[in-house]
Task: inverse folding
């Protein structure tokens, strides 16, 4: 079971690494993205080597028992080094002098980590007392081996220091970013860091209890790895949210807008761009662009049919809609849906009222901060486009128009 779980998480993590690597290759100047890619790769490698069968298979291949643990912990140290560099970059300040100072400090920090880790690996090499594999109880099996304990203590010190710094800084930056997906990702990343500190604390407490003659295997070999696994998942989620969140939101918007878009552009194909129908394309490609285009094309249709809508049609719709106790957002959506249907209907038969509407847009986003609200409004328009209330209002408008003509 452990093999399946860890290998699945490892495969998912490496897929995330590949995605981030492609993005970084497109923008090599984005150092933070490159560091995120490196750190994600460290977490992915941890998952792979945590699978007991892969752990033992690697050791059989190289002929050194528990060497996989060195690679596993080295991957964690790579993550920690990346976190330290991020910390130094984020706290450096503005200006070229500050960036130069941050680069110098980053090189120093990486050098110190590399030196400490070289000492740790040396401790492992000279202190490993037997050739028994310990993929799940390594830290408790060698509590009496000074070299291995040096290896473990230095590992926890490097890892814990990076987690504490990153876990403290991420919420501060998230607070400056409002409700963006990057802010959410930073908060999830911070939660992963703090849970990772629980892992470090469990290991240290386990060492102390073992040295005092009261070993707590449930703590070191149970709670600690469980908290580390959940922490790693949170870290990966934190790294993936800034990229995945907007795409998921765009896919949801696209799914809700598409029926309305198809309906209104079927009668006015001239408003659609070449390639707007995306036939035969990968369904998850360019989600945000496609959602933006659909909204823009729906708005183009609305602007084009406003002269076909009676000037008082929206007032009539709002009056009838208020009778069924709708809130302001629903009222606006019903009014806009009815006006859109009425305009398309009149245009189809060539009817142009004497007094056309100045606009059929009841709620409109004015700047980028209101874009999400405009998406939600148009999605509500799509939801009520074929509702019984709209049918009732349209029937009344048709009857009134027929009476006025006669």
Result:
């Amino acid at each position: 079971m452990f093999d399946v779980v860890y290998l699945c998480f490892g495969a998912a993590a490496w897929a995330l690494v590949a995605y981030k690597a492609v993005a970084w290759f497109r923008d090599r100047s984005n150092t933070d993205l490159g560091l995120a890619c490196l750190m994600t790769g460290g977490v992915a490698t941890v998952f792979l080597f945590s699978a007991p069968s892969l752990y033992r298979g690697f050791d059989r291949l190289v002929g050194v028992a528990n060497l996989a643990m060195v690679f596993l912990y080295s991957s964690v140290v790579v993550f920690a080094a990346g976190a330290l560099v991020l910390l130094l970059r984020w706290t450096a300040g503005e200006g070229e002098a500050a960036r130069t100072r941050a680069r110098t400090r980053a090189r120093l920090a990486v050098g110190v980590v590399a030196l400490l880790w070289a000492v740790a690996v040396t401790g492992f090499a000279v202190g490993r007392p037997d050739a028994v594999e310990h993929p799940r109880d390594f830290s408790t099996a060698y509590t009496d081996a000074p070299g291995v304990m040096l290896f473990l203590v230095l590992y926890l010190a490097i890892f814990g220091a990076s987690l504490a710094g990153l876990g403290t800084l991420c919420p501060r930056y998230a607070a400056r970013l409002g409700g963006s997906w990057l802010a959410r990702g930073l908060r999830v990343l911070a939660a992963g860091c703090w849970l990772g500190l629980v892992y470090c604390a469990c290991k240290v407490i386990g060492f102390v209890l073992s040295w005092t003659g009261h070993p707590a295997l449930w703590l070191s070999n149970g709670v600690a790895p469980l908290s580390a696994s959940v922490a790693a998942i949170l870290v990966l989620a934190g790294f993936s949210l800034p990229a995945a969140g907007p795409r998921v939101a765009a896919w949801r918007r696209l799914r809700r807008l598409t029926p309305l878009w198809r309906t209104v552009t079927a009668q006015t194909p001239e408003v659609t761009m070449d390639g707007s129908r995306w036939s035969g394309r990968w369904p998850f490609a360019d989600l945000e662009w496609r959602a933006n285009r659909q909204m823009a094309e729906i708005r183009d249709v609305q602007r084009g049919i406003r002269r076909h809508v009676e000037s008082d049609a929206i007032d009539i719709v709002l009056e009838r809609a208020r009778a069924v106790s709708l809130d302001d957002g629903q009222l606006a959506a019903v009014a806009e849906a009815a006006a859109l249907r009425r305009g398309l209907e009149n245009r189809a038969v060539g009817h142009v009222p004497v007094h056309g509407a100045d606009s059929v847009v009841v709620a409109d986003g004015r700047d980028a901060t209101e874009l999400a609200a405009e998406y939600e409004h148009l999605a509500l328009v799509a939801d009520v486009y074929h509702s019984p209330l709209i049918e009732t209002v349209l029937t009344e408008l048709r009857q009134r128009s027929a009476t006025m003509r006669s």
